[in-house]
Amino acid sequence: VAEQQIGDRIGDALAAVVGAGQVFAGADAGPDYQHDESLTTTGRAPGWVVRPADAEQVAAVLALATEHGIPVTARGSGTGLCGACVPRADGILVSFERLDRVLEVDVANQVAVVQPGVSLSELDTALAAHGLHYPVAPGEHSASVGGTVGTNAGGMRAVRYGVTRHNVLGLQLALPTGELLRTGGKLMKVSTGYDLTQLVIGSEGTLALVTEVVLKLRPRPAHARTLLAPFPDLDQVIRAVPEIIATGRDPHILEYVDWLTMAAITHTSQLNLGIPDELRESAQAYLVVAVENNIESRLDDDVEALGTKLLELGALDAFVLDGAAARALIEAREHAFWTGKAAGAQDVIDTVVPRTAMPEFLARVRELAEAGGSYVVGCGHAGDGNVHLAVIQPDEQVRHTLLRDIFAAGLALGGAISGEHGIGTEKKPYFLELTDPATVALLRRIKAAFDPAGILNPDVLFDAN
Amino acid sequence: VAEQQIGDRIGDALAAVVGAGQVFAGADAGPDYQHDESLTTTGRAPGWVVRPADAEQVAAVLALATEHGIPVTARGSGTGLCGACVPRADGILVSFERLDRVLEVDVANQVAVVQPGVSLSELDTALAAHGLHYPVAPGEHSASVGGTVGTNAGGMRAVRYGVTRHNVLGLQLALPTGELLRTGGKLMKVSTGYDLTQLVIGSEGTLALVTEVVLKLRPRPAHARTLLAPFPDLDQVIRAVPEIIATGRDPHILEYVDWLTMAAITHTSQLNLGIPDELRESAQAYLVVAVENNIESRLDDDVEALGTKLLELGALDAFVLDGAAARALIEAREHAFWTGKAAGAQDVIDTVVPRTAMPEFLARVRELAEAGGSYVVGCGHAGDGNVHLAVIQPDEQVRHTLLRDIFAAGLALGGAISGEHGIGTEKKPYFLELTDPATVALLRRIKAAFDPAGILNPDVLFDAN
Lengths: 465, 465
Fold this sequence. Notes:
Two copies of one chain form a homodimer. Chain A is α+β, with helices and mostly antiparallel strands and 465 residues long. Chain A has 16 helices and 18 strands. In chain A, strand 8 and strand 9 (180-184) form a beta hairpin. The first copy, chain A, is globular. The mean pLDDT of chain A is 94. At the A-B interface, strand 9, helix 6, helix 7 and helix 16 of A face strand 9, helix 6, helix 7 and helix 16 of B.
């Protein structure tokens, strides 16, 4: 009864901030607020769901949470893969669904100012009208901009355009202590104090909540070409990558797909790429190379040069896909996660290693999987060394050991546990086990500098309270 | 006597770390260790100069300094412009001159691993042999890589290639508490905990000392073209900039130079650009536009398109400079700081504003200068909104007020005090006066998370102790 009364008092205080119609007892708010797309989390109802209308309300909710020591989790579209938006049962879920406006498209400065709840597809629609483009494209276009800031989302186009942190110029932040700050701005270079923009990007909702984002834009690319090259084995694909990059033709997509993943995604998407049967049978892996340019004639020249290079590097052929087939292949590749899920994968990971270390890493992964009777298939951002693997191993303990060994192998090759998915709650045990304790201790002190009460996503990255 | 004894004991302890021949009493170490290139600092001998040979020695010096509460200042080449490497009289100056090796040029990953004492020109020589290039080019090529990390150096080529933070992939850090950490790596994307690489870049020696740097490289551009366009007034130059960027021709240099600065730099460098006298007399400002590419035919097309665009935008003409003249102009522009110094400027600043706000900002600067009887001339990175101004006003109080008002005007337009020089000690009063107190308080807490004893550059950014 006493707990119930305290709960009601918190609910009333939240209603005073965001309005009675925008606070829900967690169990009443529905299952959408309980999970992300991680394969390993189980849904959980929060204490409260609040839907603030503006930055001031977000800050006031945080001040209240700090005062009462209540955990707070932010939620954009809920498309994350590591549990970072799964709320605590005793906490507040701050949903950004009402902060969903593109505030400004500044054509002359090539900058957009948006609220965090805007989805990447909504953003793209707004930018298309101005001939502009935001080049960061993780597979899921329904992802919110705020969510991409939280995970430092990458995606296929990173090989040319970088990841979220290279394309965000400024933020408005609500601190756990209730202040609102602005960082950066419509500025391409700043050297005026520590870069809080960069520190918050990739912090997975543990340092501050993002209430506004300034994005760097580019002219919208008018023309693109996609090459698909089947190879007799995966190592040859991976070894081709540095050579393709060294041509200076600057592809914006450079993806590898192993034969099983290709079979699964083309089957699932009913995709006919026009590859002759005998070729498809001898191909063990594929490289997808795409280039784009505003000047079409340059593309023909690029495609010619890249096609010749691919054959030199051992490709069985190099197909230039027509626009519809190219789009379908990219979409199918973006949905590889869902293909993996449908195929019964119990987990997906996205370890990153130096580009040239991919063959060694993948060989090690095969060894580890075989030794434990597990099945690991994949595809990935070959240009970035970012290897996406679907892991099929029903036994939880065997799977945990396999994942730890895979991550350790990546780290031994100079890599990191995650290139773009983040750590969240689901990769936290591996992160804490495999990261230098001095680094973890420093990250904890930085967390405390932002969030002295430890209210923001206390189960993410480390156990803050 | 007691102080002398303590001093000797510290000197002995430092000698035990770095070797007796690598520790100097500050006054004996010579004037080179006492200053940077700021116009407003006066030289100061440190208590001790130490020259460590490796990362472990740097870390041990820091552990010793934390134990005894002794301030520590790092020094690369001493080419900074804000006093950030000027030592404290009671402190230790850590000179990185012996950490001067290019440890690895990894061609396949397009990455270099270097020690912080390597200069940009030494780095460039090492990379040229491999056909690779590090695109960050602040005006001073003798700057050390460590120094460019400290200030997040930018320079002319940032409009296309970004600044230091967009081209550094990883660091080895010595923490004030004596631990050595590695951050990032040969990785294009990482989402595994807070990005310490980014946090340390631009922190001006206040958070940690950098003992190794992983740099992202690009294919060395084989061909370049430079256009010089005189305009009847400066506002037209500045208004042309977004239009040039919108062409998508991706210039790597987009600089404006006002007529007085052009006269001074061409005079100082005895540079004849072949501009007819009558044109030179009617030109109030110049735009320099340069493009580079590995495929030469594309450049001719770019130059044609940009030349036509410049004339449409009001340029009096558009000259394609020959290679020697182009190099001489760029070099002269890089030395504009020295021209300003020679002309008697008492200070230089590098405020950054949104690109399109430059006309309004420059108009406000003219008003403020005239009102106070001061003289302000400049040039700058027009593509980045980064305005370099030489300020001629001998009265210190009048100059201080003018600078504060200029910075405030930049901030009011959405800008920042410094785009690339940093804050150091010399811009600190303005930074503390004009920055949101909640931001300063947060930066102080971050500083304390790294440096609990407040030993690292305690006079830089804020007064840490």
